[in-house]
């Protein structure tokens, strides 16, 4: 096998459902509902949270309009990295890539820590046996590595089963709340401006966008998708609408179950058990055990999806010549970026081992430190990408709703959310540690590293510099008529962004 063939995905194996499962699994619906939603109720705008989620869905849809528009023009497993490079330049693109890698590694490790903690707790509850979280972190990491090493469709099937089970449980709870609720309690009060823009809206907005991170995954898997011109746009819109409206419905049901005016106080008093308590009250005692089991599967599914995203970023950077070439090797049989997966597993193992040796608590220390870092990083990339898309099309004479206006509006809304996240960062982490709450500056340092490396390559290795964000341009640009592109024809040319 030639070096070129060894660094290209030869099979188009993923359908719309496969990609949707992996992207939605990265969003971890059950973990969001059980872990984040009570915090957003408690410290955000209380009963106005459902309306806040609806605002986030609207902004994400505006972003998706432009995102889907640019995907056929710039094809690369690096997604945000490739789009920012093609729109703004290689320095900014490489900076974005390193921020993305850092963010996905942080989120992978934080989710792994959550999974290990709840696994140890579950074994203790069922069998009364004390086990150290590091044991379950090790077992989980081996499973993640094996599934990432194997054919991607195997991971998609695992994620599909886990995701279906957790979504069905939450929808069952939603249906039970609606069925047993008095008609007077099922109001649209949670969507009124008075409730939505109440004090705490900024914090609620952070959790609203944080819950929907992962949409980038649709483009990350485009090189492995069947009929990607249809599959990727369809999967993107499905993910935004299904994930977003699912959270809107569930937040509205939970607020209605206890009353929009009372939900903040009740959630604040029972942060860890707020959702499980509603489950036991409306579904029976079995729901408590079901939530415990599915929290494990949800955390594992999220960790696997994030792990795959991080591995494909390493693969994309290596293929462009920025990282060691071995990371771009594709397994001849499984068609997976197996070297990148193995290296990523070693990085996560090192972080977990250092955390254990330092006697850090997996939830209080590891998760809180890393989840905020990863979330803010991806939120920032989402905003930058949304604002970069109009620049890409403006530079090619394409001006229209899909290519310019919609993503620009979505990007501005997201930029506001990112600024709120920085200002209220301690609300994301939930701790007062100065070290943890200054971690976002690490993202700035990583971005600067990317800019410095790109400029060094421009002077010392122009050939590699020209490959940063390298993309295969499938379509030639044509002016839009309204919101629909004009004559857009395949060209089969090779390009390298700006």
Shape: globular
The H-and-E topology, N to C, reads as HHHHHHHHHHHHHHHHHHHHHHEEEE
Number of E-state strands: 4
CATH topology call: Amino acid/polyamine transporter I
- Overall mean pLDDT stands at 81
The span between the termini is 31 Å
Sheet bearing the most strands, described?
2 strands, antiparallel
Number of helices in the DSSP assignment: 22
The CATH superfamily is identified as Amino acid/polyamine transporter I
Structural class of the secondary structure composition? mainly alpha
CATH class: Mainly Alpha
The residue fraction in helices comes out at over 70%
* Domains (count): 1
Assigned CATH architecture:
Up-down Bundle
Rg (C-alpha, Å): 22 Å
Describe the protein.
This protein is mainly alpha-helical and 498 residues long. The chain has one domain: Up-down Bundle (Amino acid/polyamine transporter I), CATH 1.20.1740. The chain is 72% helix and 3% strand. It is built from 22 helices and four strands. A two-stranded antiparallel sheet has the order 1-4. Strands 2-3 form a two-stranded antiparallel sheet. Strand 2 and strand 3 form a beta hairpin. Helix 2 packs parallel to helix 12 and helix 8 packs parallel to helix 12. The longest helix is centred in the first third of the chain and has 38 residues. 56% of the residues are buried. The N terminus and C terminus are likely disordered.
